[in-house]
Amino acid sequence: MRHYPTLLAIALATAFPLSALAEDAVRQGAPLTSGEIAWNRVHVQVKSDLAHAAGYTGRGATVAVLDTGVQGNHIELDTQLSGTRMYDATIRKWIAPTDGGGHGTHVAGIIAGSTGTGYSYGIAPDAKILPIKVFASDTGTASSTSLAAGLKTAAGTRAVAVINLSLGAGGPLGGSVENALRSAITADKLIVAAAGNEGGDAPIWPARYAKESWAKGQIIAVGAVDANNQLASFSNRAGDTANWYLVAPGVSVLSSYNNGGYAFMSGTSMATPVVAGAAALLEGSWPQLKAGQVASILFQTATDLGDPGVDATYGRGLLNVERAMQPVGTLAVPLGTSPKKVRRSSAALRSSVASWSGLRAAVVDGRFRGIAVDDFNRDFATDFGTGIRAPAVERISDALDMAGRSLQFTEQVHADGSRFVAAVEERRPQGLRAAHDAHRSLIASSAVFSLAGGQELAFATGSLAGSYFGLAGTDHNLANPYLGLARTSAQLAFGLTRDALSFKAGVLDAGLNAAMVRQHEWSEVGGGRAAITELNYALGRDSLIGLQYADVAERESWLGSVAGDALALERAGTRTITAHARYHVGRDTLLAARYSAGRTADTHGKALLGSAEGVRSESFALGLIGHHGLTRGDRFALTLSSPLRLTAGTARISMPVAITAAGDTVFESRRIALAATSRELKLGLDYARPLSAASSLSVLLATRHNANHVAGERDMQSGVVYRTAF
């Protein structure tokens, strides 16, 4: 049957009576058998079905429905009411929930109808409904007195977060209603009101109060669209309330009705509870949200309709529940020591070989799972472990590229023993002028000056920095890896030799390198500092043993791991001891060995990572290096090594895990074991020989067992480089 809402005024009650804003209702003649999803296109239209699939159902939220009442024993609503009683504002009493007209039952079902029980279900199916009757049963109209009383009851009920007003009048509602609305605003309630069914240029009241400054953005005016997202012919447009106006499906909406039945109804009355249900989803999931924030989220995430941006017809646009339940703005990581936040994207860490094994195990164990918050301080489950990346792949192609680069090493040895080495790269542009426009760049240099009394001064830059110490000058695989933590540094050192005993001391410092960066073309300025002392003792002409101590301070990294702000350590200091030895097996063949151990302390983070404690690490290398083996001028290096590896240590992290109803962040302190779960062994062969005065051949082979200290990880690489000059 067709139902036309009563529009008669009760003159003694108010000059502007309110009416339930339903255009028409068509009762279902037979039970629906196609299922709830098939009959409820509204969910698909506003994408609330996708929000439900993500786990958002409105549990914990309560919506006050000021209407004709609610049929409490309807199968869709018998478990959805917040209590066993309904407040009847027309007689100022709590009574059993009933509905003489069906309008309120229909509205309540759209908001919170239960699932799996019939032929419709609510936008927030796990929310609760507080029914408040404001319409007189005999007239079908509501007075300003009953509406004000109903608003005061809703505002005074602590559990209520959202008030649904599927009603309206053609003019302002007077002081009692306005005061009641103001009280609801002060009580932090969100009011969702129907825009009206007159087909006019602006909403009617109370929806039109949304534009008033005292509303504080806590009133949403709602218009209706059809299944094609076109404004319904009966719906009032946004007009002067455009900034606080949304549209939602309001044509032939299926929901619960009186006598246990169901009905399709049309009107802004039906669109309004769709928005109220979306607000309940937000309130149930994030109870810390203020009413104005809930409205702002719904406005910001709406799907734009009509003219681009906010317009006088569709206002903010079509409600988009899926988008409303997703982060708004930039996700951030709350910090435990202050209200400051850092970007979620800064929770990234490129681990070193030393740290990867332990961090990887912690990631797999879920130790980095927590929350990030959006611009409204809503928490979203986040696994920060997804930002922790494995070490850069040690590719043979990089080594081949180095072997194939047009590098020219110039070495000069003076009579007093002073030595000068320069590495120059020659880059030739493409094109006809390539032969004439070659660009030469100094990429590394080393100078050792012999002074009187067995003294030396040593300077080095680029890849040759640190080559003065230990076995680095013998082969790069035998260099102390801890010195590599002070990357992009320049070397300044002093040496003294007395008979079989020699002493060296110096620093590697990125600050010393800054001037070189400006002079040459190197782009990376970051790095650290290392203070080094070394004592060597010659056991005759063919052998040497030595002991080296280094104090390494890293900048923007820890043990080679480089992290964004969320996982960064402000500083990391490592003290290391290295023992090394070399022995000449023959005139042109050298056997060498190195073992390094370190302890990392003085580590303090500035975000999630609080500190690293008890961190110990080690590395070793063995090498057989020879010259003139197969032909004059060739060189080979056979090495067995284990890269820097953590043997002990824990990291303390302060992980945000929840946001309280008061908006405060809950942190959980966790400890992460950093020790590697296995040991990498790398076997490498590097052979190079000249073929002629202008050409050479290089062969590289490498195999790793338990690569990156991860048990069972293996790789093998090989390559050949032929180089010639034209």
Automatic annotation (TrEMBL):
Boundaries of every Peptidase S8/S53 domain copy = 58-317
Record carries keyword Transmembrane: no
Q: Name the residues that span the membrane.
A: none
User: Keyword Hydrolase on this protein?
Assistant: yes
Q: Provide this UniProt record's keywords sorted from A to Z.
A: Hydrolase, Protease, Serine protease, Signal
Q: Name one Pfam family in it.
A: Peptidase_S8
Active site as annotated: D67 (charge relay system), H103 (charge relay system), S269 (charge relay system)
* InterPro entries recorded: Peptidase_S8/S53_dom, Peptidase_S8/S53_dom_sf, Peptidase_S8_Asp-AS, Peptidase_S8_His-AS, Peptidase_S8_Ser-AS, Peptidase_S8_subtilisin-like, Peptidase_S8_subtilisin-rel, Peptidases_S8_Autotransporter
Q: Where is the signal peptide?
A: 1-22
Q: Which family does it belong to?
A: Belongs to the peptidase S8 family.
Full protein name:
S8 family serine peptidase
